[in-house]
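Hi L.,

You mentioned the student needs an example of a multi-chain input paired with its predicted structure. This one should do, with 811 residues in total across all chains.
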Amino acid sequence: MKRKYKRLYFVAIGLVLLGLATGLILNALEENIVLFLSPSQVVETPPPSSKKFRLGGVVERGSIIKGENAQVEFRVSDGTTSILVIYKGILPDLFREKQGVVADGKMVDRIFQADEILAKHDENYMPPEVAETIKKMGQWKGQE
Amino acid sequence: MIIELGHVSLILALLVSIVQVALPLFSAFRPNISWIILAKPASLAQFLMVGFAFFSLTHAYVTSDFSVLNVVQNSHSAKPLVYRITGVWANHEGSMLLWVLILAAFGFVVSIFGNNLPTVLKARVLSIQAAIALGFYLFILFTSNPFIRVQPAPANGNGMNPLLQDPGVALHPPLLYLGYVGLSVAFSFAIAALIEGRVDAVWARWVRPWIIIAWMCLTIGIGLGSWWAYYELGWGGFWFWDPVENASFMPWLVGTALIHSNSVLEKRNALKAWTVLLAIVAFSFSLLGTFLVRSGVLTSVHAFAIDPERGIFILILLIFIVGGSLILFAFRANMLKSASLFQPISREGGLLLNNLLMATGATVVLVGTLYPLFIDAISFGEEKVSVGAPFFNAVFIPLMSPMVFAMSVGPFLAWKRGDIMHVFQVLSVAGIISIIVALGFWHWKLEEGPWGGVGIGLGVWLILGTLIELFERTKLFRVAFSEVVRRFFHLPRSSFGMTLGHLGLAFLIIGISGAGTWKVESIQTMAPGHSVTVSGYKFLFQGGTTGVRENYKFTQGRFIVTEHGKLISILKPEKRYYPVRATTTTEASIHTMLSGDLYAVIGEEKNDGAFVTRLYFNPLVVWIWIGVLTMAFGAIVSLTDRKYRIGVPTQRIFKRTHGSQVGAKEV
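Structure written out for the whole complex:
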């Protein structure tokens, strides 16, 4: 092979790889991207029940009900609307009333079935999306 | 008083770094040997000054000096001594101070161990190191100063996040930083090479140990972080594709590519521009990692500094360093013509394939990590998305699998021209065994799908390929055993490094395949005396007890785990309450076996003494960390290779390639 063609060979492999990666990325983004929604957004434009998303807001006061077999129910609110969430499992250590929360899951019959309640590491830390939701509620107490 | 001295000391380090940056640059225009040799004492001075600054902050932590704001915010007098010390870098300001301390230490070590470097190159490398340090000194002094006092001093501090009061996470940031900052040495060498317009095999050998040290620390640092997440977060997961995990993973991927392209440069004097570019990109990813962690722009469990001012400062630093070096690269890269081009089927061809795949992998991780930021920006904050594990698994794993396949083949190929048909002949038995293993596991766990089996098959393929390659080298079964032993001990250490590195990855793949696909989870409420069977292991719950230790209260559950009536282990998971921060942490209790981990967590207590419990069987998970340690050990073995000790960059090679500058060599 001539020098030029050998180089072309590697450039071609590189391009094929990049093309492959792009294809995989686009395909995976379409299927695996997770939208972050507040309770109001869920009520306004309900996502299809097959679609997973992240629900974020504040755990409504007095709404936590602990049922049988590690099942928990609570409402997530953004000040105007709230949505009932059902979850089975151990709640993160920082899960409390009136605290920001993010839940992964999907809507089934107007109830949010959560597969995961996201763990927070620190009481100072709040996902920016939740912080924004709370700011919109006018209940933000932290620093601006 | 000591804290003020520390503050002054850091400012002095800043001044020294300005001198260290400027003099070698000026001397490039007006050669002046006394300016150039100043770089060595300057890097010592920087190291001592930053060292003292770090000591003074540590002193404030150890003595619980609550007139220092940083100590107030992150420490408490009731905290055990070891966590008062590790608390120095468990917060933003302190960790940045650790960053510059490690940077200064690397500069110092380059200045003493780099005696075989030409003086001018060494001065330039140290000058670029100092330029990076300068940026970070400014960052610390202007946005993240840990030496600020409070008046009046409070009686006690706020304490430290209990999750971070743990030996694993205490070592995780220093190791990660050693890796991040270690890559700065490769970066400085790359920039110095671009300035001089010259890269060759000798250069490759000079930077190689630094790349390997950085890569080793990064490997252990990432492994420790994942291990900590595994036992501390109580989810039984080991990798979350969290943006900050990705931030440490990208430099690792590029660093791995760099190790491989560097050996092509060393052996074949090819891939010059590419290697230099990788060195720049690897450190750029380290900086990007620091930016992502410190700016809080991404939703991440790690984002503990949500402060736009800091983010903007690091962003400017990032643009300056990365942009500047890429522009320099664009102007100078054409001077780095490779001496030879090569056949696709050859050792160097295989190494280049590794590079292409690693670079593609790093790009994928970068796209996935920054995509939410991008969407947020183009929708003006209206649309929020997150890109999580399903995305990365769907893209990263299919891209990397062919590389693992190729990793068994590559080492068999000779430099310049390899014979791939011969390799396939040698590896045919290994291939058949791997396919049988894959099908066996698939059949055994039929309902879980084929992927676990495929992963383990790939891991076995890589183990067999790597071992057969070692046997080939020692001519096992073909010559007398004593000759095999002799050959074994005369193999270059760097080739053992390769063997161990590849074996480590194989173990890692097996661990990920097992734990990622066959994890068994059981969540329930258990009263004392109840038992649950998970994956053949019977967990008998004996109830919970409470107590008080050092700086927390705890509730401890007790499980007796048996298999077919035989006692396997007693697990005692805890729930801990730290009054200083009013926070609770979950301590999983884990029994590790080579076949898998038994993992128990307890949740809150119900009124009748029953607890919510979460029990797991995590198959093969320990192989992940065995793999990480094997890789790191490979790096250590590789570093002991005699080629680094005998000071290979000899005068002879040096004269031939560097002509006129011989006179400037260290005297």
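You could point out the following to them. The two ends of chain A are 64 Å apart (CA to CA). The first strand of chain A starts at residue 33 and ends at 37.

Best wishes,
N.
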